[in-house]
Amino acid sequence: MSNKKARNIFITVCISPAIILFILFMVVPTVEVFRMSMYSWGGFSNTKEFVGFDNFKVLWNDAGFIQSFQNSVLLIVLVAMITIVFALFFAALLTKENLKGNNFFRIIFYIPNILSIVVIAGIFSAVYDPESGLLNSVFDIFSLESMKQMWLGNQSIVIYSVAGALVWQAIGYYMVMYMSSMASIPASYYEAASLEGAGKLKQFTSITLPLIWNNIRTTLTFYIISTINLSFLLVKAMTGGGPDGSTEVFLSYMYAQAYGNSTYGYGMAIGVVVFLFSFALAAIVSHITKRDVLEY
Amino acid sequence: MKMKHLLFALSALFLVIALSACSGGDDSSDNKANGENGDKDEETTLHVAALESAYGADMWKKVAEAYEATNENVKIEFTIEKNLEEVVRPEMQAGSYPDVFLLATDREEALTETLIKEKAVENLSDVLEMKVPGEEAVVKDKILDGFTDTLATNPYGDGETYLAPMFYSPTGLFYNESLFEEKGWEVPQTWDEMWELGDKAKEEGISLFTYPIAGYFDTLLGSMLYASGGPDFYNSAMTYEDNIWETKEAERVLKTVEKLGEYTHPNTVANANPNDFTKNQQLVLENKALFMPNGSWVVDEMKEAPRADGFEWGMAPVPAFEEGGDRYAFTFFEQIWIPSAAENKDAAKDFIAYMYSDEAADIFLEAGAVQPIEGIVEKLNDQKKIFYSVYENGALPAMGTFASTEPVPGASISDEVYGTIDSVISGKTTYEQWKKDIEEVSDKLRPAMK
Questions:
Q1: CATH class of A53-288
Q2: Could you tell me which residues come within 8 angstroms of residue B131 by beta carbon, excluding any fewer than 6 positions away?
Q3: Is B114 close to A43, i.e. CB distance below 8 A?
Q4: A10 min Cα distance to partner chain B (Å)
Q5: What percent of chain A has pLDDT over 90?
Q6: Best mean pLDDT range from B155-164, B251-260, B383-392, B396-405
Q7: Would you call B422 and A122 a contact, using CB atoms and an 8 Å cutoff?
Q8: Are B112 and B104 in contact (CB under 8 A)?
Q9: How far apart are CA B66 and CA B355, in angstroms?
Q10: Partners of residue B100 on adjacent β-strands
């Protein structure tokens, strides 16, 4: 008994630093965000006023918040869908086909992920430049004048321009993740399938996809989290939320409210909504994609 | 079971210890703050936080040296950063405030506005009555007329000055003087002449107008409001008077901006963001657009940029609405202020009074920063004189900003008035919708005014 007690004390002492750090730097700030969302406060003074759920009531009628929410959801959906298609395609190509310069392409695809998001913003504002930009110049060469656009100026397409940059930087990262799990699928499955006369596409949908399904599920959560975070950074550096708020995402709107508009409490209320939304979305996505894990 | 209890108790204990340790830290710093208050004879360390702008950080060091030379018991410590807000905000939240701030309003992080809204800025009206250190003159006599009775210095509109004016710069429409000479064009006096010139320029493939980012309209729109309805009208708009944007004076300003959209260089909106705004300024340098709203700082900002042959900066006040009508050039200035939580307020006030001495003004001027004091224009070099003498050539000075309110969640007047301009210029929003939106936000802010 005393031996067991000593063991328990030892375990407690060993894990307590981690628990303390976790509580101090994760739990306390999160609870703090929830608490501050109930106050009307500018951020500095001692005149915090408890307003209950008033901040949340304002949210429902705030056109700026609704616009930023729509933009964020659009970005999450677009970036996840497009990236997953491209990443799977390239991953399958690079693992299954014996291409020349396999490794070279793997590195090339991965490079955008190493770049800082501010550099990416710089690259893409050069790509999207109305006059000398890569995109408009290419259309010029092929005399496709009608395709030329103000990529960052036209309010109905600028959010897709932001999505384009996000997809570009995400593909490499997810491709490498899919490649690693594709590589562990035994080659004999594919041999057997091709002997039975299954084509490449059939092999992909019936062997590759089911066997890396768990990996894909995990990355879906990553898409949600990383798009929310990276879109804020990219928008801050590339468009500043403009023109006229058309690329505002919810973290940038939260920042603008908490600091720019001196309504810190309201900003925290937006933070709470973002927190709950991303949790709920990740849970739903994880739930509806749940399949029996295939052992091999 | 027991083990679980033990674990829980222990972690709870740790949490309590950790939390009390945190709050303990706060207490001690508070005590320190109280203890250091009022020690006038001993050495005071004055903590000055200044934004590092185009003028650079060196001028502050030189000013500090000069100040310390005459005030031996004062030592000045600086925080000079380009991202000043991000650096000092955490310190301030931990209870350690700088004594003096040089940080203007209308910046994205809005730290100054936040403190104004929270009534955490010290009243500086008594500084205006102080003698400038080392001189006989009183501060308020030395500061140029009009600079200390705007909403930018008296944010609550009660006649009390909370922010002192620093580094001013006239703003207006910047253009290439030699292009106008070459083509034989006159700088338009009225908006009608402006549109005529716009049509002429269009034939030559030049757009009439561009702007760096929508935020630059704070000075252009300000001048237009002044020109349209005079100073009282401007102040009514800035204090959210009911239905003020429905008046015909306001309407013609908004309509003019909408019409300006037809004459704006097509690339402008796409480049009107913090990353690319210099591309819009480049349009003027390359004779692709005639005018842009800007301040005299643009000359230094675009110093290294390539430009059309013989390019020469010119600045015009904003056109009048009718023949012979008033023309205004908005004066932009930065502000220096003391947070209420500062430790050494008396020393800070003395330091601010010193900012208006000839000695300090000369040091600032060397770095290109112009103090709003009597006789400064005579000291300027020729290039600068052209801009600063705009008021001697018939333009009226315009100053001010929106009145401070209690923070209202989701209601930002500058987003609504200036941010929307991107949409108005691109044609997505009509001036009627714009007007309606501004009225709506004004309605929300009016009751929140102090």
A1: mainly alpha
A2: B137, B138, B139, B353
A3: yes
A4: 11
A5: 80
A6: B251-260
A7: no
A8: yes
A9: 11
A10: B48
pLDDT at residue B193 in the model: 96
Q: What whole-number distance in Å separates Cα of residue A187 and Cα of residue B178?
A: 74
Residue B353, token pair as written in the block:
């009074």
The SS3 call for residue A31 is: helix
Residues 6+ apart with CB under 8 A from B46: B74, B75, B76, B77, B99, B100, B344, B347, B348, B351
Report residue B206 as tokens: 């030049």
Distance in angstroms (rounded) separating the CA atoms of residues B414 and B216 = 11
Q: Do B348 and B220 contact (CB within 8 A), yes or no?
A: no
Per-residue model confidence as pLDDT tens digits over B179-219:
999 999 999 999 999 999 999 999 999 999 999 999 999 99
Rounded distance between C-alpha atoms, residue B15 and residue B11, angstroms: 6
Domain ranges of chain A: 53-288
Whether A43 and B120 lie within 8 Å, measured CB to CB:
no
**Between β-strands B396-398 and B328-337, what pairing exists: parallel, antiparallel or unpaired?**
parallel
> For the residues A209-237, what does the mean pLDDT come to?
94
Report the SS3 class of residue A252: helix
Three-state secondary structure of chain B: CHHHHHHHHHHHHHHHHHHHHHHHHHHHHHHHHHHHCCCCCCCEEEEEEEECCCCCCHHHHHHHHHHHHHCCCEEEEEEEECCHHHHHHHHHHCCCCCCEEECCCCCCCCHHHHHHHCCCECCCHHHHHCECCCCCCEHHHHECCCCCCCCCCCCCCCCCCCCEEEEEEEEEEEEEHHHHHHHCCCCCCEHHHHHHHHHHHHHCCCEEECCCCHHHHHHHHHHHHHHHHHHHHHHHHHCCCCCHHHCHHHHHHHHHHHHHHHCECCCHHHHCCCCCHHHHHHHHHCCCEEEEEEECCHHHHCCCCCCCCCCCEEEECCCECCCCCCCEEEEEEEEEECECCCCCHHHHHHHHHHCCCHHHHHHHHHCCCCCCECCCHHHCCHHHHHHHHHHHHCCEEECCCCCCECCCCCCCHHHHHHHCHHHHHHCCCCHHHHHHHHHHHHHHHHHHEC
How far is residue B276's CA from residue A122's CA, in Å, rounded to a whole number? 9
pLDDT at position A150 over 80: yes
The shortest C-alpha distance from A216 to chain B (Å) reads: 35
CA distance B212 to B292: 7
Mutation pick from B91, B273, B422 vs chain A, by most beta carbons of A within 10 Å, is: B273
Substitution target from A22, A44, A154 for chain B, most B beta carbons within 10 A: A44
**What domains lie within chain B, and their CATH numbers?**
41-168+332-385 (3.40.190.10), 172-330+403-448 (3.40.190.10)
ipTM confidence score: 0.86
